[in-house]
Specification:
Blueprint: E1 8-11, H1 16-23, H2 27-32, E2 42-45, E3 56-59, E4 66-68, E5 87-88, E6 95-96, H3 102-110, H4 112-139, H5 145-173, H6 180-217, H7 223-230, H8 232-265, H9 272-307
Antiparallel strand pairs: 1-2, 2-3, 3-4, 5-6
Helix pairs in contact: 5-6, 6-8, 8-9
Length: 308
């Protein structure tokens, strides 16, 4: 399949991002756990003035159709999720070739007897489900770049915050000594885990907001509820409390689980007492994260309001 190089910027191997996806170990979690796949070829429209997220197209080598990248995106992730078998073309329903992380391939080779027969059984059903999902996606408006960027921003901030907290915690744990090897080792781990905790939070909360809007639209609102919602101070207070609770339970709870996995991964002794001792610390860090994101979000809204 030939591409117009004057119109499109071609993203394929050996493009830096494609190489990073293939060689970086952390992306095996994206592929095997979350089902996120990166197509072998992506085209960026150089003539369009839209944001990059809205001018990225995935070509299908079977029917030569250019598909909008957002067809496979979700509210919580620009890469979508659940695409373990690849990206299904909405036009010809063939599988668009995707890259594989080398560490994912190694794990798949080792566990071959475990997944071979289930995959042969479920692959056809998954393709049929994906056809139905794509048909629905074509009927509704695609995700706007702002929603995709917001999800990525929250994820990146979450990952960086988790890494900083992790480094501070390890320094305190080691009696004030800095361990450069530990810092470098924990960086990709913290970034990936924090990123997905942040995206998961946004995905869950977005679904809750949509369900609440639909419920309110179809139900008669009582006078007391209407009066409460009319008070902007009450609304802002409830919103801030929700941010703090999100950070405490989502981020703090996720960090607590990751703490146990990190200790086992580094060969440390895992103990129930140690996990109980760490629970309030992680919840406190989650609360701090919720406060931090709430302040940043309000500052961003304030600056945006001043610009307009």
């Amino acid at each position: 399949m030939r591409y117009d190089k004057n119109r499109f910027k071609i993203q394929a191997l050996p493009h830096p991002f494609s190489l990073l996806w293939v060689l970086f170990p952390a992306f095996m979690f994206n592929e095997l756990i979350f089902g996120q796949r990166l197509p072998k070829v992506a085209l960026i429209d150089k003539e369009s003035d839209k944001p990059p997220e809205e001018r990225c197209y995935i070509p299908c080598p079977h029917c030569e159709t250019l598909n909008d990248r957002r067809l496979w995106s979700t509210k919580g992730s620009a890469f979508g999720h659940g695409h373990w078998f690849g990206l299904v073309c909405p036009s010809c329903h063939q599988i668009i070739p995707c890259l594989w992380n080398i560490f994912s391939l190694a794990i798949l080779a080792i566990t071959f007897p475990l997944w071979y027969f289930p995959v042969r059984f479920f692959r056809h059903k998954w393709i049929e489900k994906e056809k139905e999902r794509l048909a629905k996606a074509l009927e509704r408006p695609l995700l706007q770049a702002t929603s995709i960027i917001d999800s990525l921003s929250i994820g990146v901030v979450s990952g960086i915050f988790m890494w900083v907290m992790w480094v501070i915690f390890e320094v305190v744990r080691n009696g004030g000594e800095w361990d450069l090897k530990m810092m470098l080792k924990s960086l990709p781990f913290s970034l990936v885990v924090g990123f997905w905790i942040g995206c998961f939070m946004r995905w869950v909360e977005k679904d809750k907001e949509e369900i609440e809007k639909e419920r309110l639209a179809n139900a008669r609102e009582r006078p007391l509820i209407r009066a409460i919602r009319a008070k902007s101070t009450i609304k802002s207070t409830i919103k801030s409390i929700r941010w703090f609770l999100r950070g405490t339970f989502y981020f703090g709870g996720g960090m607590w689980v990751v703490f146990g996995v990190w200790n086992v991964w580094n060969g440390r002794v895992w103990g129930l007492r140690m996990m109980f001792d760490m629970l309030p610390v992680c919840l406190l860090l989650g609360f701090v994260w919720g406060c931090f994101v709430y302040v940043v979000a309000n500052l961003a809204n304030l600056l945006e309001g001043r610009k307009t």
